[in-house]
Amino acid sequence: MGGNTKLVSVYRGNYLQAQIVKGRLESEGVPTLLQYEGAGLVFGVTVDGLGEARVMVPEELAEEAKAIVTEHEYDEPDDMMQGEPGEQV
Q1: pLDDT tens, 22-72?
Q2: For the packed helices 62-71 and 15-27, what is the interaxial angle rounded to 10 degrees?
Q3: In this structure, how many other beta carbons lie within 10 angstroms of the beta carbon of residue 50?
Q4: With left for phi above 0 and alpha for psi between -120 and 50, is residue 65 left, alpha or beta?
Q5: What residues make up the domain containing 64?
């Protein structure tokens, strides 16, 4: 991914769930990055964003990635979850 590539979140969950989704997307040719809050890994909790991990993809591949996430039933893509649309980084 280039330095000027905008990334959007297509999945939110705990770190292990996000790793599974990341692997599936990469196996489909979608480059990904994980964005996560480190204290959650240390303490092993996911509460109010603590321990949350997000799977980030290039903006131009977001729709394809969301379709893959939905197709494989990893829960819902990030912008379908309550309250927060996919965030740009």
Answers
A1: 999 999 999 999 998 776 666 666 556 667 889 999 999 999 999 999 887
A2: 110
A3: 12
A4: alpha
A5: 8-75
